[in-house]
Amino acid sequence: MAAVNLTILGLERLGTSFGLALKRYMGQKDARHTFTITGFDERGYNGKKARQLGAVDSVARSEQEAVAKAQVVVLAAPYYQVKSLYEIVGPALQPGAVVLDTSPLKAPSLGWAKANLPQQPEVAAYMVGITPVLNPEVLMEPDLEVDGSRADLFDKGTVIVAPAADCPAEAVQLAVEMARLLGAGVHFMDVAEHDGLIAAMEGLPAVLGAILFQTLSQAEAWDDLRRLANPSFGLATHHLRFQHPDSLWSQLHYNRENVARYLDAFIGKLEAVRDSLREDSEGLGLEALLVEGATKYEEWEGQRLANRWEQTEEAPAPEGFINTMGGLLLGRRPARKDDEDTRRGE
């Protein structure tokens, strides 16, 4: 049985659920790996709660202490902290350590990783971008706090693996194996493609919710409007409750071209609705738009709840978690193309 030291940086719902899922795996009769899990979070309550839930074995007092013995690091901190975390923990990582970065954007993280993780062959550490697409049961539950953590958060879901083009195959395979231990499937995606798509599914809803709240809170009728808030308004503006403004800013700013492109498309739809309301006395255009949207939503919802899609991509056949971990974590550097070229010339 392989013993692995794993650290989780960021103990909100995602990070704490990661620990709970691994603890659940360790309780299975056929479990082949054991994890000693260390956690770190700037908020003391998160660390205390994660420990009470049994998601982590210990909570470190500093970022460097948290990663000192880590062979795998799960980076699940709020996005505004990610850049500084790379700067702090990069020099403290063990040779061969793998950082699984769950940040909403992968291209900026790759740049921060390259600038701060050890790159020399004998001490190199590696970063793989992952994006968990969660259990359909939480699709309408926007709570991101530690109290919403659950061991089955990844069940019936998918982990998007978006590595850099030159990422060692062993590090990618480790991410694949980890996803399967969590109970999720795997789908591969190019980094640029990932960030383009995430602009639509995360960035656009965030900016729309923020602008919706700002628009209504500045309206003359706000004193009365605020009394009428129900789930429709709460769900539409939930980003302002569960995400730090700096995280929202980073998610929009670092991906601004992609977000702006989807905003253009959205503005076009808004203008069509506005024109229909003002000019179409019968409301036929608006009716057609709503019927089309409801039909497509029903189709999408059924697919998402079942996690079944027309096109699927299977992950490569696993080489075995133990072999993967051994190749990276026992100090053996993954072979690179230039190494192979050198050997051919010998």
Task: Please provide a written account of the structure.
Helix content is 52%, strand content 12%. The protein folds into 2 domains: 2-189 and 314-337, NAD(P)-binding Rossmann-like Domain (Rossmann fold), CATH 3.40.50; 193-279, 6-phosphogluconate dehydrogenase C-terminal fold (Orthogonal Bundle). It has helices at residues 13-26, 44-53, 63-67, 79-89, 107-116, 169-182, 191-217, 222-225, 231-236, 239-242, 245-253, 256-279, 284-306, 321-329, 337-345, and strands at residues 2-9, 33-40, 58-59, 72-75, 98-101, 126-133, 158-162, 185-188. Mean pLDDT is 91; it is low at 317-322, 329-333 and 335-346. α4 runs parallel beside α5 (107-116), α7 crosses α12 and α12 (256-279) packs across α13 (284-306). It contains 15 helices and 8 strands. α5 links the parallel β5 and β6 (126-133). The protein is of the alpha/beta class. Strands 3-2-1-4-5-6-7-8 form an 8-stranded mixed sheet, sandwiched between helices.
